[in-house]
Amino acid sequence: MEPGGPKPVYVIGTEVPVPGGALEEISDLEVTTPVAALRSVEVHRKAFAAADVTSAFDRAIGVVVQPGIEFGNANVVAYDQRKARSLSATLSQMPQFVFEAHSTDYQQTAALSALVDDGFAILKVGPWLTFALREVLYGLDCVAEVLVPGAPEDRLPAAMERLMLGEPGNWQKYYHGTAKDLKFQRHFSYSDRIRYYWPHRDAQAALKRLDGQRIPETLVSQYLAALYPAVAAGRVEARPRNLQIAAVRTVLAAYWQACGGR
What we know:
Structural class: alpha/beta
CATH class of the largest domain: Mainly Alpha
CATH superfamily of the largest domain: putative tagatose 6-phosphate kinase domain like
Strand order of the largest sheet: 1-2-5-6
Strand content: 5-15%
């Protein structure tokens, strides 16, 4: 922060979820109670005062709470407004704040909009963005197999499997089950632990099969169907990098819409 520049604002709270999403299938979650939310604010108020930085607490704008949403390796718990109604009403007792909701990944746009309407104005998103990137990269690999066929071991999933098995540190403690289960999760889990491997030189080498090549619209329709309307309308150029960016922006657009973007 530069001297004389805007002072930082703060988000406070203790409701921090498991990094990367839940490790098991989840069916229901306990919503933060109004009492717990109010207590969290008061505890932080006292902590700021004890540290003689009360003026900094005046710039606290958000409180982290659990509105009853989460994702695991294989499923997503959707937002239920009814269960969060009393928590949402608590904001009337703390006009300084909005709520921050963690783990909003994979919620439908209507659910994201409902969260914002209910006072969860700060929406944290993580692996949904890289999950969307992985989807388009694997789709592009299918396109490459049509345009420039190669050996099975040159396919992107095969290269990523070798890489993840050789360096298991980023997924091993997060995935559980049979060998078949583990292989599926390495590539297709909502937790998307594969995201940590894309910068690796072996992964980057495996991504070069199409390099800047223009992709026929019919193959976009076949293997990247979610992006086909934008390509057909001329809003997205059918080249690998453009399609990757468009996939991530599609996810971000849901948040933009939920937050009132036009």
